[in-house]
Amino acid sequence: MDFNVKKLASDAGVFFTRAVQFTEEKLGQAEKTELDAHLENLIARADCTKNWTEKILRQTEILLQPNPSARIEEFFYEKLDRKIPSRTTNGELLGQYMLEAAKDFGPGTPYGSTLITVGEYQKKLGGAEREFLQSSAVSFLTPLRNFLEGDWRTISKERRLLENRRLDLDVCKTRLKKAKLAEAKAAAEHELRVAQTEFDRQAEVTRLLLEGISSTHVNHLRCLREFVEAQTVYYAQCQQFMQELQKELSRFPNAFAVNPSTSGLSVGSSPISSSSGAPLGTSSPHRPTISSNALEPGTLKIEEVQPPATGTRKAKVLYDYDAADTSELSLLADELITVYTVPGMDPDWLIGERGNQKGKVPVTYLELLS
Predict the structure, then answer these.
(1) pLDDT at 264 > cutoff 60
(2) Does the residue 265 lie in any domain?
(3) Most CB atoms within 10 A, among 24, 106, 275, 283?
(4) In what order do the strands lie in the sheet with 349-354?
């Protein structure tokens, strides 16, 4: 018990002398031992690495999991050293809802069958997102977090020890200056030598740890490349799924048609693009509904239509289009055709000509050039 009390009193005395030295340094009343320039640069570089690693880690977590409640839940699971439960992604949940809705609407209806197709691909997108999140957490987030919770804590501990050794060294220097008797000077010089040795030893330990920041950068560079690779794979999968979905939907050309007898609304079409740019959006537009004003076999036959003397224009095809009947002209993306209109024709359609072929084409699939 006596030993513990003495040790406690000794520690309190050391803490007090350090506090006095620190205060006098701040007030300019005591000299301060400066670290060498190389060590100061290493400390500044380490602080910069720590600050930016924290910001990158925090923002990456937000990118991968925008829901703050879910992030807090994952944080507690990690602190409790428990496995984070698998969570359904938004894409998978949306796909499931679409499949369930298709059952109620009828899988044999155009809307129901389309919901099934889109729902299946939404689930695929959700599955790809899940794999991306898991891969990013292992290859990128975990190494950054390990640095902050492991290496950086060790560096911070050694830096605090170095600061204490510096304060002890400066206290010994102050005592030596104030010593007047030869015996007191001898004791102060001995304490100064011991303090200088401990300070130099701690400075070397701290320097070695700080130089390890270069290895940390190399490791984080490798992790960053793996993160980019995971993103590349994920977005490539998404693009592939969406292209496959577009092909699937193109097999149901009438799926978007609205029955005028059951709805008071007509199908709207995208604005006709001009020579200044393509239509808004990158996906294939809906097929226009054939109205009573469109060319009908009983009133005017396609082969009888003649181009006007003036008013023909060139148009670039934006998307592939499969003709629904013999009165329409099938199109291939990026090809050039000649288009024109005739009196009484539905504004959603034009007459298109390609060589000897002629037929109706939807204007939303075209970019008018001249």
Answers:
(1) no
(2) no
(3) 24
(4) 357-362, 349-354, 336-340, 313-317, 366-368
